[in-house]
Design brief:
The complex is a heterodimer.
Chain A: H1 7-13, H2 30-56
Helix pairs in contact in A: 1-2
Chain B: H1 9-28, H2 42-47, H3 54-65, H4 68-81, H5 88-113, H6 118-126, H7 129-160, H8 167-183, H9 186-214, H10 216-231, H11 244-258, H12 262-269, H13 274-283, H14 285-303, H15 314-322, H16 325-363, H17 369-393, H18 396-411, H19 414-422, H20 428-448, E1 454-459, E2 462-467, H21 468-486, H22 490-495
Antiparallel strand pairs in B: 1-2
Classes of the chains: A mainly alpha, B mainly alpha.
Chain lengths: 59, 498
């Protein structure tokens, strides 16, 4: 489950994947809205791990 | 378009109103959230009674980690170079999985034994005064210039109000020093509520209203793109190929270093439970959205066709140019108060370190908890006066350079503080030698580069540029591992875990 927490590292440290202008969203080039998108995504992944570990009683 | 040279009375009045409000809060805070323990104790002054729940921790760490200097410097860098300045966004995202995995464990260890600082945890784990001293000294050295930079943030907005001279800055800081002395960590925790709400209001208004005045986000980005095209060099709306590796390594290295600082760790140790910290790892990223939006103010500066003498003036210049003066005053107050919270927590963190890992370790081992609190209170005053003197009498560039080196230094405490929480393989001596190698190696590389955050390695025909702090951390871990393997086992009995 904790492996989910590796996803933001992969998604944000592999720069060639998102160093592009297109597709733009609401005037934001891809480079920008993609990084913003990872904020709620990372919070959600941490919440998933948190919930699972609390159910398992680790927390 | 320059800064207003004359005092803007409306903006000034709004600014003073909020400053007085937080001053009252700061002094009143000593009675707020007072625990059942009424006697003087370092846990009370230095950690707010170790009783901060999810909300208080969220405001405190948010107000403390995203500093006033960030609000000034991140948009300034984005204004100057573009996409490269956005490394702050992946940095402040990646920090939270790291916090979630490491900090609840650190909290448990500290809670059980009553530790107040990271160096306490290290001493208890390894039984080495030398390693404890190394961690504590690094933390204090890294924090001092950081406090000074908060003053730079305040200086910028005070100047934008049209005030001149150094008296306003000194007065603001002395008031801060007094209520921190009186109320300890409760003062910045309470003020953080006001500060963070003000910053949220300012940023939300700015990101909604400014683009409508400037023709929308598409227009903001294209104006910035045109400005960078005219400027040339390593600037632009996207990263140039040679900027990708430094961007990624700065983000990762900064994320690893962020919660090694005493001000962020103080927020962790002050939490009521490990669960409080886990929940905060989920909810603190809300501040990262805010930081990303703040960074965009740099591009709005281009769209508004502002030119500034110093890049750090871009945010105040933007508010002065686009907003009525009462709102500019509100925004400047938010930034100035935003400097007070981290400066207070940093000085408390540094004072806790001095008290626990120097005073108690070497001067007076029999000191009582009440005596510890008294020492820490006085040290917090000394630290703040030191930072003020630093900014008033030394060039600002000196503080900037030291803060940059401070990030590299604090990262070198990561193996000593964190590794022992997860596995017991490393002994104290290898960790100490690794720390020394990383610190010396990293500092030497940074000096050779003229105090730049990144270093370029030429391997064959390729050039690879990396964050020097991360390179130093690699040196640190490799040296610690080699020493661990070659050092005779016998030594383990001498320096082994206590």
């Amino acid at each position: 489950m904790r492996l989910l927490l590796l996803l933001p590292f992969v998604g944000l440290l592999w720069i060639p994947f998102y160093n592009h202008e297109l597709p733009a969203l609401f005037g934001f080039p891809f480079f920008y809205w993609y990084q913003f998108l990872w904020v709620p995504l990372t919070a959600f992944l941490i919440w998933l791990v948190y919930r699972r570990e609390r159910e398992e009683g680790d927390a | 378009m320059g800064m207003t040279e004359h005092l803007d009375w409306t903006a000034f009045a709004v600014f003073v109103f909020f400053f007085v409000l937080v001053t009252v809060l700061g002094f009143w805070a000593s009675r707020w959230q007072a625990g059942p323990k009424k006697e003087a104790h370092l846990d009370e002054w230095g950690l707010g009674g170790r009783n901060f729940g999810t909300w208080i921790t969220w405001f405190l760490v948010g107000g403390d980690f995203y500093t006033a200097y960030t609000v000034i410097a991140v948009p300034a860098l984005v204004y100057a170079v573009g996409a490269y300045g956005f490394f702050a966004l992946p940095y402040t995202i990646l920090v939270y999985p790291i916090v979630f995995l490491i900090m609840p464990r650190l909290w448990h260890v500290a809670q059980k034994a009553g530790h107040v600082t990271a160096a306490d945890v290290v001493y208890a784990r390894y039984g080495s005064r030398a390693l404890e001293f190394a961690v504590a000294l690094t933390a204090v050295l890294a924090t001092m210039p950081y406090i000074a930079l908060q003053l730079v943030g305040m200086e910028v907005v005070i100047k934008a109000l049209g005030l001149t001279g150094e008296v306003p800055l000194a007065a603001a800081f002395i008031i801060l020093a007094l209520y921190t002395y009186a109320a300890g960590l409760r003062a910045p925790a309470l003020i953080a509520f006001v500060k963070d709400l003000m910053i949220y209001v300012v940023v939300l208004v700015a990101v909604v209203l400014v683009p409508t005045k400037l023709g929308g986000y598409g227009a903001v980005f294209s104006a910035a793109g045109e400005a960078f095209a005219a400027k040339g060099g390593a600037t632009g709306l996207l990263l140039q190929p040679q900027q990708m590796l430094p961007f990624a390594s700065l983000a990762l290295g900064s994320a690893l270093a962020a919660f090694m600082y005493p001000h962020t760790l103080t927020g962790i140790f002050a939490a009521k439970s490990a669960d409080t910290i886990r929940k905060n790892a989920v909810f603190l990223p809300a501040y990262t959205v805010l930081l990303g939006l703040i960074a965009l103010l740099g591009y709005m500066g281009h769209a508004a066709h502002l030119t500034v003498k110093s890049n750090n003036d871009i945010v105040p210049a933007l508010f002065n140019a686009l907003f009525p003066s009462w709102f500019a005053g509100f925004a400047f107050a938010a930034i100035a108060i935003g400097a007070l919270v981290p400066a207070a927590v940093m000085s408390i963190g540094a004072a806790n370190l001095f008290t626990r890992n120097f005073w108690k370790a070497y001067v007076n081992p029999q000191v009582t908890p009440a005596g510890e609190q008294q020492v820490a209170k006085i040290v917090s005053l000394v630290v703040k006066v030191g930072a003020l003197v630093f900014i008033l009498f030394l060039p600002t560039q000196f503080a900037l350079d030291l803060q940059l080196l401070g990030g590299l230094w604090i990262l070198q405490t990561f193996p000593a503080v964190v590794f022992g929480l997860f596995f017991g393989w490393y002994r104290a001596t290898p960790l100490l030698i690794g720390w020394a190698a990383g610190l010396a190696g990293g500092t030497a590389i940074a000096f050779a580069d003229g105090i730049k955050p990144v270093h370029t390695f030429a391997i064959g025909d390729g050039h690879y540029t990396l964050y020097t702090g991360l390179v130093a951390l690699a040196i640190n871990i490799v040296v610690a591992t080699v020493v661990q393997l070659v050092l005779p086992r016998r030594n383990a009995e001498v320096v082994g875990p206590a």
